[in-house]
Amino acid sequence: MLKNFKSYIPIFFSMLFWGMSFIWTKDLLNAGFSPIIIITLRVLISAILLYVIFKIAGKLDKIERKDYKLFMALAFFEPFLYFFGENWGLQYLDPSIGSVIISTIPVFVPFGLYFFHKEALHWQLIIGVFLTIIGLFIISISPNAAFNVSGKGILLMFLAVFSASGYSVVLYKVVKKYEPITITTTQNIIGSIYYLPFFFAFEMKTIKTLTFNFDTLYPLFALAILCSSIAFICYSYSAKRLTIPKTSVFTNAVPIVTILFAVLLGKEVLTLNKVIGMVVVLLGVFLSQINLKRKNYESKSWISAIKLRKR
User: Fold this and answer.
1) Element housing 276 (H / E)
2) 3-state secondary structure string, 99-150?
3) What is the mean pLDDT of residues 54-62?
4) Could you give the count of Cα atoms lying within 13 Å of 131 in the half-sphere of its Cβ?
5) Which residue in 164, 103, 158, 106 sits closest to 292, CA to CA?
6) What pLDDT, in 10s, does the model give residues 138-194?
7) Which pLDDT does position 270 carry in this prediction?
8) Can you give the pTM of this predicted structure?
9) Averaging pLDDT over each range in 11-25, 235-249, 286-300, which range is the top one?
10) Contact 72/191 with Cβ under 8 angstroms?
C-alpha cells in the first residue's frame, strides 16, 4: 500500500467530494430545482469547463472510432442513468440514508466484473450482500416499528448503485487505453447530450421560476467542478493505477463524510436505528472486500494480471 500511496490520495478526494454531493444536491432540491435541472446543469458546466481547459492544454487523448461505443455506454451508466437514480432518490430520502445505499456499490461491482470479465467471486461477497440488505432494513424502520423511509427512494438509489456497477464494467476496458482527463471529459460531454432533450422537453418553464443566487449557485458549481469533474478524474486515476475493486471499496467512506457534514451543518439528526443500520451496511461492504484485497490483488496489479492471462 505504501508503494502506491500516491494512487490513494486522489480517491480520498473523490470520496470527500462525493460525500458532500448528497448535501449540495439536497440543498438544490429544497430550493425548487428539479432532478433534471440539477443533473443537466451540473454535467453541462463540467463538460464545458473540462473540454475548454484540457483542449487548450492539449491533454485530451484522441479516441479511436471503435471505442466511441464504449464511451457512449460509459456515459449512459454514469452520469446519465446514475444521476437519475441518485437525484430522484434524494427527493424521498435523507442525505445520510442515500449515501449509505450508495456505499453498497463495492458489493455489487464484483458481480458485474464476474459476469462480463470472469473475475472470481467469493463467499464473503455473498454474506456481505446479505448483511447489506439487513442493514438497509434496519435503517428503514422507525423506533415504533413503522417504516419511515420511502421504498421508492430506496429503489431509485439502487438504480444508481447498479448504474455505477455497469459503469465499472465498462471502465474496466476504457481505463486501460485512455487517461483519466480524457475519460471524464468525454463521458460528461456525452452525458450532457443525453440530458439536454429531457431538459428542453420538461424543464424550460420550471427554470424560469428559479432563483439563482449564492445559495443556489454555490452548490451547483460545487457539484459541477468538485464532484463531476475533479472527483471523477481522481477516481479514474486511482482505478488506472490500482484495481477497480480496490478503488470502488473507498465508496464505503461516502456515508461517513455525508453524515459528518450533515450533522455538523444541522441538516439532520441521527437516530439509533440509523446508526445501527449504517454500521451493519458498512460491515457487509467491508466483509465483501476482505478476500479481494488479500488474495486476488495483493501480489500483482490488475493490469499485470490481465496481461498474464493473455500469455
Assistant:
1) helix 272-291
2) HHHHCCHHHHHHHHHHHHHCCCCCHHHHHHHHHHHHHHHHHCECCCCCECCC
3) 93
4) 21
5) 106
6) 776 666 545 557 889 999 999 999 999 889 889 888 988 999 999 999 999 999 999
7) 76
8) 0.79
9) 11-25
10) no
pLDDT in tens, 244-255: 766 776 776 787
Show the cell assigned to 45: 458546466
Q: What's the angle, vertex CA 80, arms to CA 241 and CA 72, rounded to 5?
A: 65
The three cell numbers of residue 293 are 484485497
Distance separating alpha carbons of residues 174 and 191, to the nearest angstrom: 16
Do the beta carbons of residue 82 and residue 235 sit within 8 Å?
no
Q: State yes or no: pLDDT of 310 exceeds 70.
A: no
How many residues in total does the chain contain? 311
The DSSP 8-state label assigned to residue 34 in this structure reads -
Contacts of 136 (CB under 8 A, 6+ apart): 100, 101, 104, 154, 277, 281
CB 234 within 8 A of CB 225: no
Cα separation of 22 and 158, whole Å? 15
Taking Cα atoms as reference points, which of 99, 136, 96 lies closest to residue 263? 96
Phi, psi of 209 (to 5 degrees): -95, -5
Q: Which three cell numbers stand for residue 228?
A: 463531476
